[in-house]
Design brief:
two-stranded antiparallel sheet
């Protein structure tokens, strides 16, 4: 009986979860600093599980610094990106596949793993087909739903400048031209709602709605995911852009949503004992309080390419 099988029998773990716990435990045996941080309550199991997939003796200290500063979701993305960066192009190409599975509802689920260049071609093809197949929206919709849809809908010609880029079409159209959309993505990199890190299925949102005199310009637009776009239009939330470009969102009751949770700024993040590679304090009695495993992330959007490039 293997250790993983014993865990499934003795404490009722799923086999996959048991194998993962054994893998993490074995990896910690060769990573004393991460092991000490975990024992002291500075890292959660989810963080340790992610970091041990890519950590080794050479990069352990750097990865630990990142793990202490990042949220669990950010750390998963960083470790996944670092693992992908370490693979050769030939190894990555061997993982390309397309799978189709018929669902009980009669729909078909497609799973596609391709290179970045191939994905662009596939997504463009899907979008072109979807545009031809999508039926017209029904006429009995609410006014707020119509305003939300109109934030980023319709096709109207727009003028361009001498360089061919459109960065402000004023009141001519509510639709967002491609040049403005690209500039909007470069600036926002995903949903701007406080605490949201979604980078998929994002919409352009007019801070001052086009129907109310708002211009289609970078100074009046932000990217929002579908869920938070709906909150602003149909759930009573409101948003304004400050002069420094930061987005302020208020609840229906008028309360300002913080950009990030409170930070543990009153204590140091990393404290290594000189030459002992252990945390200060009694390792048998970790100093656990309300700030335990709290990241030092300040709410700023993470530059994944820079982080992975630096670690690699």
């Amino acid at each position: 009986m293997s250790c993983a099988h014993w865990l499934t029998w003795r404490i009722g773990l799923d086999r996959g979860a048991a194998r993962e716990k054994v893998r993490v435990a074995r990896a910690l045996g060769a990573l004393p600093r991460i092991d000490a941080a975990f024992a002291a309550g500075r890292l959660s199991y989810a963080q340790v599980r992610a970091i041990t997939r890519v950590a080794n003796a050479e990069n352990e200290e750097r990865l630990l610094e990142v793990a202490l500063a990042a949220t669990g979701a950010q750390l998963e993305r960083i470790c996944r990106g670092l693992r992908l960066a370490a693979r050769s192009e030939s190894e990555a190409a061997q993982e390309r596949y397309v799978r189709a599975r018929v669902l009980g509802s009669g729909l078909v689920k497609l799973e596609v793993v391709v290179t970045a260049d191939e994905s662009t071609l596939i997504i463009d093809a899907i979008e072109r087909v979807r545009e031809t197949l999508t039926p017209a929206p029904p006429a009995p919709v609410s006014a707020e739903t119509l305003r939300r849809v109109c934030c980023d809908g319709g096709i109207v010609p727009a003028a361009v400048d001498a360089q061919g880029a459109v960065l402000d079409v004023g009141r001519r159209t509510r639709a967002i031209p491609s040049a403005i959309r690209r500039a909007l993505w470069v600036r926002d990199q995903g949903c701007r709602f406080p605490g949201c890190m979604n980078q998929r299925y994002v919409h352009g949102h007019h801070i001052q709605h086009w129907l109310h005199g708002g211009a289609t310009s970078l100074g009046n637009l932000v990217l929002l995911c579908a869920w938070h776009h709906r909150l602003l239009h149909e759930a009573g939330f409101s948003a304004t852009l400050r002069g420094d470009g930061e987005l302020e969102v208020r609840t229906p009751a008028g309360e300002l949503l913080p950009a990030h949770p409170a930070l543990a700024t009153d204590r140091p993040i990393v404290e290594w004992g000189a030459g002992t590679e252990q945390w200060h304090g009694d390792p048998d009695e970790p100093d656990v309080d309300e700030w335990t495993t709290m990241p030092s992330w300040d709410g700023e959007r993470m530059d994944l390419d820079w982080v992975v490039g630096t670690l690699a």
